[in-house]
Amino acid sequence: MRIMKEDKEEMSKDENYSSNKRRVNKKIEMTKVKLDSDEKSVALFVDGPNMLRKEFMIDLRELKRRASKYGRVISAEVFINQFAPEKLIEAIINEGYRVDMTLAVQEDDANDVDIAVATAALEVALTRNDVEFIALATRDADFLPVIQKSKKYGKKVIIFGAEPGFGSSLRHAADFTEVM
Questions:
Q1: Backbone angles phi, psi at 98, to 5 degrees
Q2: With contact defined as beta carbons under 8 Å apart, do 166 and 142 qualify?
Q3: Edge-to-edge strands of the sheet including 41-47?
Q4: Spatial contact of 70 and 91, defined as CB atoms under 8 Å apart
Q5: 144: closest CA among 120, 163, 169?
Q6: What does the alpha-carbon distance between residue 146 and residue 136 come to, in Å, rounded to a whole number?
Q7: What angle do CA 112, 64, 111 make, to 5 degrees?
Q8: Cα distances (angstroms) measured from residue 40 to each of 28, 69, 94, 103, 132
Q9: pLDDT tens, residue by residue, 132-175
Q10: Contact at 8 Å (CB) between 128 and 153?
């Protein structure tokens, strides 16, 4: 009889401990959700052929660090064509970016990734309510409509560019502009 009584007391303690642990864990999860929902987030899109050139020496780690000043970078993509060197692709992946490869025509001035960048950025602007900032790394004024449409749908736009050739229309349309 005595053993059963001790067993019941032990079980009662275990149940109380488990119940308290569940309550504490629930409070922790609720706090995490609240903190996560208050944090601003950034989706970063890099126009590879336009920005990742030897003459600019763009540091992808530095780019992501700068973007993180505006919020947590939840998506970072570099758009390239099939002519990108394997070492560049490896470096992009090693910095934690997703690589999006587009087929292109081999020309000196070909930048066939523009449509892929624009489509991805607008998809995020239109469908991701958790993203507050759309960040574009480009010098190309062709992205002006992307900036305008993103702002129309309530997103703030950050442009990371480089000289020479950094489109003035991009500088004026974006909410924030940084020269790399």
A1: -90, 140
A2: no
A3: 98-102, 72-81, 41-47, 133-137, 156-161, 176-179
A4: no
A5: 169
A6: 9
A7: 10
A8: 20, 10, 25, 34, 6
A9: 999 999 999 999 999 999 999 999 999 999 999 898 999 999 99
A10: no
The DSSP symbol for 109 reads: T
> pLDDT tier at 33 (50, 70, 90 boundaries)?
very low
Burial of 91 (0-12, 13-18, 19+ CB in 10 A): middle
DSSP state of 106: -
d(CA 175, CA 107): 33
pTM summary value:
0.76
The set of residues, in sequence order, having a beta carbon less than 8 Å from that of 106 and lying 6+ positions away, is: 83
DSSP character for 100?
E
